Amino acid sequence: MKAREIQIQNHMIKKKPYYLPVGDEVELFTAAYEAKIPVLLKGPTGTGKTRFVEYMAYMLGKQLKRKKGLPVITVACHEDLTTTDLVGKFLLKGEETVWMDGPLSTAVKKGGICYLDEIVEARKDTTVIIHPLADHRRILPVDKKGTVIEAHESFFLVISYNPGYQSIIKELKQSTKQRFIAINFDYPDKEKEAEIIAHESGVDKKTAADLARIGEKIRHIEGHALTEGASTRVLVYAGSLIKKGISARRACDVSITSLLTEEKEVRRAINEVISAVFPG
Amino acid sequence: MKAREIQIQNHMIKKKPYYLPVGDEVELFTAAYEAKIPVLLKGPTGTGKTRFVEYMAYMLGKQLKRKKGLPVITVACHEDLTTTDLVGKFLLKGEETVWMDGPLSTAVKKGGICYLDEIVEARKDTTVIIHPLADHRRILPVDKKGTVIEAHESFFLVISYNPGYQSIIKELKQSTKQRFIAINFDYPDKEKEAEIIAHESGVDKKTAADLARIGEKIRHIEGHALTEGASTRVLVYAGSLIKKGISARRACDVSITSLLTEEKEVRRAINEVISAVFPG
Amino acid sequence: MKAREIQIQNHMIKKKPYYLPVGDEVELFTAAYEAKIPVLLKGPTGTGKTRFVEYMAYMLGKQLKRKKGLPVITVACHEDLTTTDLVGKFLLKGEETVWMDGPLSTAVKKGGICYLDEIVEARKDTTVIIHPLADHRRILPVDKKGTVIEAHESFFLVISYNPGYQSIIKELKQSTKQRFIAINFDYPDKEKEAEIIAHESGVDKKTAADLARIGEKIRHIEGHALTEGASTRVLVYAGSLIKKGISARRACDVSITSLLTEEKEVRRAINEVISAVFPG
Amino acid sequence: MKAREIQIQNHMIKKKPYYLPVGDEVELFTAAYEAKIPVLLKGPTGTGKTRFVEYMAYMLGKQLKRKKGLPVITVACHEDLTTTDLVGKFLLKGEETVWMDGPLSTAVKKGGICYLDEIVEARKDTTVIIHPLADHRRILPVDKKGTVIEAHESFFLVISYNPGYQSIIKELKQSTKQRFIAINFDYPDKEKEAEIIAHESGVDKKTAADLARIGEKIRHIEGHALTEGASTRVLVYAGSLIKKGISARRACDVSITSLLTEEKEVRRAINEVISAVFPG
Amino acid sequence: MKAREIQIQNHMIKKKPYYLPVGDEVELFTAAYEAKIPVLLKGPTGTGKTRFVEYMAYMLGKQLKRKKGLPVITVACHEDLTTTDLVGKFLLKGEETVWMDGPLSTAVKKGGICYLDEIVEARKDTTVIIHPLADHRRILPVDKKGTVIEAHESFFLVISYNPGYQSIIKELKQSTKQRFIAINFDYPDKEKEAEIIAHESGVDKKTAADLARIGEKIRHIEGHALTEGASTRVLVYAGSLIKKGISARRACDVSITSLLTEEKEVRRAINEVISAVFPG
Amino acid sequence: MKAREIQIQNHMIKKKPYYLPVGDEVELFTAAYEAKIPVLLKGPTGTGKTRFVEYMAYMLGKQLKRKKGLPVITVACHEDLTTTDLVGKFLLKGEETVWMDGPLSTAVKKGGICYLDEIVEARKDTTVIIHPLADHRRILPVDKKGTVIEAHESFFLVISYNPGYQSIIKELKQSTKQRFIAINFDYPDKEKEAEIIAHESGVDKKTAADLARIGEKIRHIEGHALTEGASTRVLVYAGSLIKKGISARRACDVSITSLLTEEKEVRRAINEVISAVFPG
Predict the structure, then answer these.
(1) Which residues cross the membrane (chains A, B, C, D, E, F) (predicted)?
(2) How far is A3 from chain B (nearest CA, A)?
(3) D161: how many CB neighbours lie within 10 A of its CB?
(4) Is this model's pTM higher than 0.90 or not?
(5) ipTM over 0.90
(6) Distance in angstroms (rounded) separating the CA atoms of residues F197 and F207
(7) Residues C162 and C201 reside in one and the same domain
(8) How close, in Å, is residue F85 to chain E by CA atoms?
(9) Domain's final residue, options D151, D184, D217
């Protein structure tokens, strides 16, 4: 039962994550971290936002010369996520009642990055609980305990947001947004993406470049018929299957075409892109 | 009370399930399993997706030379299924509180396939909980305990999805989809289907072929008026009733016609198909 | 507190229920029972579906030469019925926690028919819980306990469904339907219905025939203006009131006309039918 | 704590309620009671349905020569009323758990009338729980305890229903309706109503007749603009205020006009009716 | 813990509330109180309904020569208010379970006025729970305890209702309304209102008259563009600010204009009214 | 466990907050505080409403010569905030039950400002609970305990409201609004805003003036295409990033453009404003 506390050491990034910067995101994140301005990462799925946060935690941890590095606690937000899940609750332990901090209050107390992934998916109370943390006050009121926690020196708040998903119902309020600076994420350029694909899937450079070409071309279709383009991740998946002996066409089929859409017209367009690159 | 733990041995596939491959699904599944890329099975009801997963668990278990085989824990998802149901919860046991893992955390810890059938039916939190399991991290955060479980070497995530059912409300998000490769499932061809019907229901080859013919023809009607065609399963049911002495026409009536639709026009079309094959 | 278990002997059908077969429903049910194919009973209210199930339980019990007969556990499904209600839950008993099986798990364990009346009314999780019970697996996963129950040899699943009620929202999914065969229920013909009315209400044969005639005629109006016709049950009610000294016209008025509709036009049509049969 | 049981003697009708029959409702109710056919009372508010049930309980109690009479347990149904509220639940009493029957199970066990007023307002599970009680089975399954109660000899089920209120959403299902006979309730005729007003409010016969005249005339407006006419109750209220010294016009104003509608046109029509009768 | 009971002495009106009658409301309320007919107060916000109830409690308390006066328990109803909140519930106290009456059952038992302010805002079950209290029965069933409380001699039920707010969804049912008489509340005339403003805010008679003039004029705009006019309360607020040294124009601005509407056109109209009265 | 009480000293404003008055808001707030009239602060996000409340608490605390100052308890309201969260609840502590006051009841008892930020976001019960606190009664009924708290001499209620957000569903009721006076908040003029930016971010006066100019110009676009203009806060953020070495254009890009809108046309307009001011 003593395990009912978030083990902060579980959240240390022990080895340097593989991450290829695509612009000035490292400089912006560092400046914001130093100025204690919370960061909002904007961009489509599979462009490396999560890994970027892990990378920055690792790099800033080094820079800060903290013995144990800078932990990063990631919360994948969803419709039923409440303030209580983030801040903590009382649990019954035999005849005693035990308090258990949530991921957010743990980071606020012990320091480190708290990354709320797709916060707009969570229940509305969660977007409000971060307001006093995200402005000059840097405090977290813990209503259930009647206390207020002042944020640790190294506490840093990061949230993400996928503009492609947002509807009128699921939109961040201006009073939330205007507490953050926004760093945009987009797909890397062809050369960088090929480098990533080769590194992650183990395919040869030629195949990696071919897959990157497919990614780029599909993203041009996107504006017209796809809600979202092929992410770098699905290109890596295609590469991995090729590496395991599946033919390039079939690998692209199950990793890309089948996933992106159910519409026949669009599928045909995607297939044309693929067969132009892998004619065989 | 000691029984409050998922008995993993209950989930071993002890004898080889009867499964006739219809394409390269065995190779794709094997490659994905080896590359640790989660798999999404797409296709209509009654085309053997569940049995395919059991078959692969059996085959991979053999191949891995695991003494006890590879368990498969199936969860039929529904509207009220929450993260807690999958990941685990605390139970009160007299004066003690006991943790009980859910089906997902059991598979993550002990290894084996976790098959989330029709995951899109579940509450939204469940589709998000699998994100860190389904990418490079392969971890499962257990919020209630404040811990993070690293997936067992042999843990493998499979989900299914019936495109015929999906609406705008119940649709997998791109950020979920793009963590999987998709293997399509469809009805087997006439010869294979006849073989399955004969094997499963015990009818003679001629009757099995007749039933397979009916299946194929009804699926042609489908595009126009039926939401879904007659599955292999209902053809097997018709065969079983014939075997028990019910006339072929009546067996098809209660297994196929009455189930597929309430619309009179479509029923007439189905009946014509049946009486063409079983004129008596 | 020891009473917190479903008493299976409460569910034995001790004497032969009065039931007049209207077609081959007895043969179909018997064949399905033997082939272990679950049965879906389709038809309007008051046509004897519940009594048919009780009758079959009695008859199959005899045939099986089970000493104690075949129990039938009926569950009237409703909007708030959950999986937990069917499968069981933990109850607090003083300082102990006691497991209590639900009606479904009781039948799965101890054998007998489980009849889920109007299952489509229940919450969606309940229609999914029966999937592994209703296919080749014949198992019931008990999530709360982490166990899986293999169905008793004599366990048999029956559900009912009233097509007149179904809307797009409340519709069985194809993946549920295609696990059953469907036996249709309809109103008996005039002669059989008169026999039932006479037997159940105690009126003389002439009056019973008159009431059956009224039933038949009203069902012809139905297609146009009534959501559902007069069931055999309301005709029996009318007979019972006549037997108690209420005039035939007034008995039909309170048992039939007032119940079937609020629309004046339709009421006039019903009244004409009644006064043609009972002119006095 | 011993008081946690429904005190059946609280529900005896000790003195004969004042009730003036308006048709054959007494005979119909008696015949239905003897034939054990449940009764549905249909009609607008304030026409004496509740008092009629109390009157019949008193009269049948006498007739049955039961020493203690026939109790009547009334439940005013509402949106949040659940099966548990009707059937019973377990309560924690110190370290023990105590079962407490609900109003319905109390009447089923101990006998008497259970009157579910406006049952259509309750949650859907409650309309289903009465099905096995309202047909030939006369049983009440108590899911929470795993038992089935057979209804007491004198148990009788009465429900009410106001057709003016019903919408498509709040409508009794045919499978519920066809388990009842329906007795219609309407406003009494002018003479009877004057007699009631005089008796209940204590005003003189002339004033009572004037108020009854107003009631009758307003009900003629109703068809056009009012959802419901002035009930006998509001006419009694007007009489009571007159008796306390309020002028007849003002008494009608606050008891009738202000309550029935907010629409000016309709108010003017009502006022004209009132000032024609009470010109002063 | 002994404090878990409603302290009835907290609800005594110790000194005569300042209240200026505007019509025959005192006589009507008194007559209804004596005839035990529940009262519904209808009218816009800020017209003194709450204070009128306190005034009547004080006056009737005097008249009744009760030593301790007549208590008034006010409940501001809201969307989440349930029957349980009004009637009472069991609380856990260490190892014991303690019953705690709600505001309504306290008044029913101990006597006094129970004032349910804007009852239509509450959940539907609350409007039904008052039915047997509001007719000839004068009883309150306490389902949770299985008992029925007969109302104290001096118990009196008052509810309020703002017709300007009601929508089809939030409307009192006729079966509720017709259990009450309705007393209408409206803004006082200019002279009376000036007297109230002067008394409550302490401004001189001239300023009070000016403010009353503004109130009257704004209410003429109302019919066209405002959902509700300026209440007496906001005029008193303006007076209070003037008394504290804020200029009359600015005081009206923050008390009246800024509150009543966001629409520019209407604001201009209100400002014209104000600057006509306070030209400086 | 003893910590389960709100620590009022946590809510003292220990040092004078930096606040530049923009109009007569200090005088109005002071007059309202003295006249005990609750205050509603109206205006867009990031205009310093929260800091103004802290400033007034500090100033009034000085003025009152209270040794410990005037505490301010801020509650960021959200969709799931209930009365219980504000007023308090019982908690189980081992075998005892302990009452814990909420933020509102704490301020009511011990004195100080309770600031309910964006109250309209909270559940409806919370807007009703403040009614008796916000009128002449100045009381808070604590239903759960059956008591009524009279407000401390120095208790003062402040709420905020952003008119840009309100929809028909989320609107304060007139009966709530008319219990407050409204003080409007808007963006400060260019000179004041430059002063604030320089003070808060540490940039030089020239850059601060440039940023203030950008703010002003963007607010002119607002009326047409933006739901809300750039707040003072985002201008301060831009300043802070510039101070950390990010170029002025890039700083404005991530602090302003990326946050305010997703629409390309509007972004272009904003960019033109920025590049006119920072041409480099």
Answers:
(1) none
(2) 7
(3) 22
(4) no
(5) no
(6) 9
(7) no
(8) 14
(9) D184
